[in-house]
């Protein structure tokens, strides 16, 4: 059966993983053609690291990068800024040749997943 | 993340406030073709008579970060001296086929793609060494891109001042209001870096935000 595998990864599992472990897992899944949905997403620093590592792994033939979408952080109050730890929000990541974002607002992500090569 | 590093990050803005630098290192960030180098050139031309680099309609024209030190901006009695870093456009994907559409030969397109990936890495690394960011967005485009969300998130996490520049307001379908609605927690200044429209408002905002 032709299809695209979608991995929905729970917050509980993500919380147990170190940043680099998460990023490595995401990149490995995406490079093998899967779409990854993270329940609690990534922190902004992890998102930047994911982009950085993605750039290191791009090649001309097989992997041209990722499509990644998450909601913006909600603006935080003064005490949250002082003491709060920045948390990610739901994030969708896939290979750039398979996942296309059609629409994105602060509370909605509409994505199109293509079968086969995009 | 180490506890000391987290404390330093959380309270960094307080240290910055108490021990304000006389020179701020400001990064110009944004997606490819948002007009970052055009803006850098505009600022440098207006305040130093020089330019930062070449511009083109082919994405990823700027593939190495460029630093220009000691740019002094004076507006309404307020002044600020900036070290300006013009960064390569951030992207999550780079496909050399895109460059072929602009008429580049295949070898040059592949070389550009490779340099562009290195440029993105360099731009991300610069985030750790800045005192503030000018985030340039193309106001004819949807502002809710992952690149914009990631940059805003990183600047907020570091507690650095951020000024959003809604560029290309000279184009008919520009909508700076869409950018303001997308990122209401940050100041947004609509300009045309190419035509110089509203550029004085930007200088005023820079002096207030980074001065």
Automatic annotation (TrEMBL), chain A:
This is Uncharacterized conserved protein UCP004977. It comes from the Archaea. It comes from Archaeoglobus veneficus (strain DSM 11195 / SNP6). InterPro entries: OapB-like.
Automatic annotation (TrEMBL), chain B:
GO terms for molecular function: GTP binding. Coiled coil: none annotated. GO terms for biological process: tRNA methylation; tRNA wobble uridine modification. It comes from the Archaea. One of its GO terms (cellular component) is cytoplasm. Pfam families: MMR_HSR1. Residues 25-168 form the G domain. Gene3D superfamilies: P-loop containing nucleotide triphosphate hydrolases. PANTHER family: TRNA MODIFICATION GTPASE GTPBP3, TRNA MODIFICATION GTPASE GTPBP3, MITOCHONDRIAL. This is Small GTP-binding protein. It comes from Archaeoglobus veneficus (strain DSM 11195 / SNP6).
């Amino acid at each position: 059966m032709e299809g695209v595998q979608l991995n929905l990864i729970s917050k509980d599992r993500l919380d147990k993983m170190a940043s680099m472990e998460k990023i490595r897992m995401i990149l490995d899944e995406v490079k093998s053609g899967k779409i990854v949905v993270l329940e609690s997403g990534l922190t902004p620093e992890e998102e930047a690291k994911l982009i950085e590592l993605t750039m290191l792994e791009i090649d001309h033939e097989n992997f041209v990068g990722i499509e990644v979408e998450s909601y913006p952080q909600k603006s935080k109050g003064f005490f949250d800024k002082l003491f709060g730890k920045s948390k990610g929000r739901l994030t969708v990541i896939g290979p750039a040749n398979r996942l296309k974002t059609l629409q994105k607002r602060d509370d909605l992500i509409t994505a199109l997943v293509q079968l086969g090569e995009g | 993340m180490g506890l000391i590093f987290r404390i330093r990050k959380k309270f960094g803005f307080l240290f910055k406030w108490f021990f304000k630098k006389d020179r701020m290192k400001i990064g110009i960030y944004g997606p490819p073709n948002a007009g970052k180098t055009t803006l850098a050139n505009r600022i440098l031309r207006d305040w130093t008579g020089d330019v930062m680099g070449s511009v083109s309609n082919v994405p990823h024209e700027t593939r190495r970060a460029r630093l220009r030190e000691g740019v002094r901006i004076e507006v309404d009695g307020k002044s600020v001296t900036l070290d300006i870093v013009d960064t390569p456009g951030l992207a999550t994907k780079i496909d050399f086929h895109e460059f072929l559409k602009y008429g580049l030969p295949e070898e040059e397109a592949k070389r550009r793609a490779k340099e562009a990936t290195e440029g993105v890495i360099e731009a991300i690394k610069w985030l750790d060494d800045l005192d503030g960011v000018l985030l340039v967005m193309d106001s004819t485009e949807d502002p809710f891109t992952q690149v914009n969300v990631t940059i805003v998130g990183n600047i907020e996490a570091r507690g650095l001042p951020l000024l959003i520049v809604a560029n290309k307001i000279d184009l008919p379908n520009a909508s700076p209001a869409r950018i303001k609605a997308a990122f209401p927690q940050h100041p947004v200044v609509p300009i045309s870096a190419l035509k110089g429209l509203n550029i004085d408002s930007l200088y005023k905002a820079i002096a207030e935000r980074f001065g």
